[in-house]
Amino acid sequence: MNRGNEASENGSDTDLGSGGTIVLPDLSDGAGHTLHLAVGAGKDSNLYVVNRDSMGKFSPNNSSIYQELAGALPGGVFAMPAYFNNTVYYGSVGSPMQAFTISNAKLSSSATAQTSNSFGYPGTTPSVSANGTSNGIVWAAENTNPAVLHAYNAGTLNELYNSNQASNGRDQFGAGNKFITPVIVNGKVFVGTTNGVAVFGLLP
Q1: Tens of pLDDT along 73-106?
Q2: Which structural domain range is residue 14 located in?
Q3: Would you say residue 32 lies in a domain?
Q4: pTM, rounded to two decimals
Q5: CATH code at 135?
Q6: C-beta of residue 91 within 8 angstroms of C-beta of residue 123
């Protein structure tokens, strides 16, 4: 995000480029205007929303950013967000995963829900499974040893399951791996490991 502070961010290694961007579906601002927005973040702990039709150009006096949530993502972002049901999910470094709800084409000024656990470096890139717009589950992998796959209620971010719960270690799947995104297909969750792929599903 070119706000005229590129030299200071480069010098302190807090530049934007570490996180990915997600394109949001068309949103209405409540006055009948349809907006085409994208959400992104990086190492500086800020969450940015941009208008894809009016990026603002560079100005030394005015950033022209559609919306900025300063300090909303402590630890910085080295991952991608997820989107589901007018909610954006972010897992920044050393912090809980947070949910920001969208109303009138603006993100909530602070998180409306967060997980009870935090995610160490590099944070987490969540995925969402659902039955249409209902029964949403947010999945997130934790880069620990052993690695942990978490499942959360998409509305509250209350934990439904994690792969360390079984007392016999049944669901553990080895050491963590950076930058892994769970993939959900046909009722199963696939998680990349350092030497293979772990597959999670319902027990017989």
Answers
A1: 999 999 999 999 999 999 999 999 999 999 999 9
A2: 6-200
A3: yes
A4: 0.90
A5: 2.130.10.10
A6: yes
